[in-house]
Amino acid sequence: MIERDLAPKLRAAARRYPAITLTGPRQSGKSTLCRMVFPKLAYANLEAPDVRAFAASDARRFLSQFDKGAIIDEIQRVPDLTSYLQQIIDDNPQHGRWILTGSQSLTMMESVSQSLAGRTAILHLLPLARNESLRFGRHPNSLDETMFTGGYPRILDEGLEPSEWLGSYIRTYVERDVRLVSNIGDLAVFQRFVQLCASRTAQLLNLSSLALDAGISQPTAKAWLSILEATFIAFRLQPYFGNIGKRLVKASKLHFYDTGLVCWLLGIREPAQLGLHPLRGPIFETWVLSEILKHRLNRGEHTGLYFYRDRQGLEADIVIEEGRKLTVVEAKAGQTATQELVNAGRQVTALLTSAAKTNRILVFGGEAGQKRSDVEILSWNSLHQRSW
C-alpha cells in the first residue's frame, strides 16, 4: 500500500494528543493507514463478533490487555468504550497511545465528544486523492477513467474492475451498514433514493422534489440524507454569504465524496459512457470539489468551502475562504478553454472583491493550463499539484 497524504498529520497528532480519532467512509484505508503509521501498537477490530462481544460485555478487561495502547477499529460498534477510555487516558495521558477509527460519524462522534473532548485529535480520511492514485503502478490516465474509477484504494491496489467492486460496495452498504445506523424497512426504496441523490450531484438540494421522486415523505428524505452524510457517502455544500445581503439562495448543494460511486449509481459501466453523458458536467464539478476537499482534510483543514448563487442566477461552483482571502473556483468539463469558459465566475469574483481579496481559478477538462491577467486556467490533471 502507498503512503497516504494524511500520514504526516496523523504522526504529528500522535505527538500532541493521548488519542486520535480517525473517521471516513468504509474501505477508505483507515485501518491500513493506522497500522502502517503505528506498527508497534496492538490492533483490535470491533467488526469481529467475538472481539465486539468481549468489548461490550467487559470493557475494562478488554482495554486492560492493551497496556501500551492500541488501534481500535470501528469504535462505533461499541460506543461505550470511549467512556472507559476517558478514565484510562486521565490516569495515563501519554501521547499517541490510542488510535480510534470509525465509519459512522453520528454514533462515533456523539460518544467521542461526550467522553474524549480535549483528549483526542479528530482527523478524516477520504478515498484517494488524485496525487495518491498516481502512486500506484496501475492508475487511471484520462479524466473519464479517473472519474469513473473513483478513489477507493482497493480498486487500484488490486487492479479490480471498478464497476464490480463498487456494485458489491453499494450492496453491502445498503444491506448491512445502513441498518447499523437506522432501521429502514424497504431497502430497495432506500437504494432508489441513493440513486436519485446521485442524479442530483452538484445541484441545489430540493428535498420536496427528491422525496416526491423517491415516493417517500419529506421528513423521511431528510432522515435518509442524514444517513448518507453520517456514513460518508454524500455531503451538503453550504452557500457563501459573507456580507452580501439577502439576495442569495439558502439551499445547499448536494455532492458525493466519490465520483466512482456516482457513476455506478447512474448506471455508467465503462469510462467511454461518460463522454456524452448528460451529467458529465456535474460529475466533473463533484470531482473537482472532492479533490479540493481531500487536499484540505489531509492537512487538517475542515472548513472554508462554499458555493455562490444568488436569486438572479449568478453563481460560482466553489468559493474557498481563508481569512480575508477568497478564491472563486469554476469547474468546467470542456476540453477547450473557450471565451465562454474563461468568463465563468468573473461576475462573482468582481462582486466578492468588494468584501475581500479575491482570486479566480478555472479548472477545465483539457490538458494544458495557462495564466491570464484575471484568471488561472488549471488543467484537471494538474489540480493535485496546487496547494488548496
Beta strand %: 15-25%
| DSSP E strands, number | 14
Strand line-up in the sheet with most strands: 9-10-11-12-14-13
Biggest sheet, open or closed, and with what strands and sense? 6 strands, mixed
Number of helices: 17
In percent, how helical is the residue content? 40-55%
Distance between the termini: 25 Å
Average the pLDDT over all residues and give the rounded result: 93
Structural class call reads alpha/beta
Spans of 5+ residues with little confidence (pLDDT < 50)?
A: none
User: Any idea what the shape is?
Assistant: globular
Nearest-angstrom radius of gyration?
22 Å
3D architecture notes:
The chain has 388 residues and is an alpha/beta fold. Among the domains are: 7-124, Rossmann fold, CATH 3.40.50.300; 130-235 and 253-278, no CATH class. 41% of the residues lie in helices and 18% in strands. It has 17 helices and 14 strands. The chain has a 6-stranded mixed β-sheet. The protein has a 5-stranded parallel β-sheet with strand order 2-3-4-1-5, sandwiched between helices. Strands 6-8-7 form a 3-stranded antiparallel β-sheet. Strand 9 (305-309) and strand 10 form a beta hairpin. The mean pLDDT is 93.
Q: What layout of secondary structure does this protein have?
A:
Blueprint: H1 7-14, E1 19-23, H2 30-37, E2 42-45, H3 49-57, H4 59-64, E3 70-73, H5 81-91, E4 98-102, H6 105-115, E5 120-124, H7 130-133, H8 143-149, H9 153-157, H10 162-181, H11 187-198, E6 203-204, H12 207-214, H13 218-230, E7 234-237, E8 253-256, H14 259-265, H15 280-298, E9 305-309, E10 315-322, E11 325-332, H16 339-343, H17 346-352, E12 357-364, E13 370-371, E14 376-379
Parallel strand pairs: 1-4, 1-5, 2-3, 3-4, 11-12, 12-14
Antiparallel strand pairs: 6-8, 7-8, 9-10, 10-11, 13-14
